[in-house]
Amino acid sequence: MLLETREVSKIYQMGTTEVAALDKVSLAVGAGEFVAIQGTSGSGKSTLLNMLGGLDHPTSGEVVFEEKSLAPFSKKEMARYRRHSVGMIFQNFNLITTMSALENVELALAFGGLRGKARDERAAELLEGVGLRDRLTHRPSELSGGEQQRVAIARALANSPRVLLADEPTGNLDSTRAEELLSLLRQMVERDSLTVLMVTHDRELAARFTDRIVMMKDGKIVQEPEAGSRKPE
Q1: Inter-axis angle of helices 101-111 and 116-129, to 10 degrees?
Q2: How far from each other are the two terminal CA atoms of the chain, in whole angstroms?
């Protein structure tokens, strides 16, 4: 398996009360899989995604990437994991508003150590790959919501991660743009063997485009169909 959680729990202290955001969650995702995570608000979906992305640490249990536990990672190793192994996109795009689409992607490449002309060419190539060849110099305010999310995807893929983690990526998009976005992600899974884990509330789109749907409730996985449950269109 490429990415796993093994008996992961996360407990937050709220005053004198302990709240279990995750309760012994075990999930295994293979390379080239497209997995949707669903559940009601407070079910632990985003907390799980943050654990997988190295943005938070389990209270108990472990996250494993390519058979290596993240638990003993130093701050430097964890930063490298977040920069090169996983990419993340969010509902609100999180683009830098004063920068063009090209500059937003170039910034991620700069953090990854790429410089000069190679960085410019790689950024343009990434944006072309998400269908934005004619939008390179546009700032976020000049782009539609769907286009902004495509820039966010290009930025997340800047340093060639194995895994893309998406937290409600279609939440701010209309149905047409949401379908376009998931179609793009599906193409990347099939063409590039990208692994995608996506938190989404849209059951219909998840059923159409992902390989399986993991259901969560009260910090636990309550339903996890076998891989390959997606029906061919």
Answers
A1: 120
A2: 27
Angle between helices 145-156 and 101-111 (to 10 degrees): 20
Q: Specify the pLDDT at position 224.
A: 61
Backbone angles phi, psi at 5, to 5 degrees: -115, 135
- The alpha carbon of residue 108 and the mean position of all alpha carbons in its chain are separated, in whole angstroms, by 15
Strand ranges inside the chain, DSSP E: 3-14, 17-29, 34-39, 60-65, 68-69, 86-90, 163-167, 195-199, 212-217, 220-223
CB 4, CB 52: distance < 8 Å: no
Return phi, psi of residue 108, to 5°: -65, -40
Residues 124-141: b if buried by 16+ CB within 10 A, e if exposed? bebbebbebeebbebbbe
Name the one residue in this structure whose structure tokens are 């969560």: 216
Distance CA(148)–CA(141), nearest Å, equals: 9
Contacts of 71 (CB under 8 A, 6+ apart): 58, 62, 63
Q: What is the CA radius of gyration of the chain?
A: 18
Quickly list H helices, 12-66: 45-52
Q: Report the pLDDT averaged over residues 160-180.
A: 93
Query: Under 8 Å CB-to-CB from 13, ≥6 apart: which residues?
Result: 19
Would you call 41 helix, strand, or coil by DSSP?
A: coil
Q: 231: pLDDT confidence band, cut at 50, 70 and 90?
A: very low
3-state secondary structure of 124: helix
Indicate the pLDDT class of residue 227, thresholds 50, 70 and 90: very low
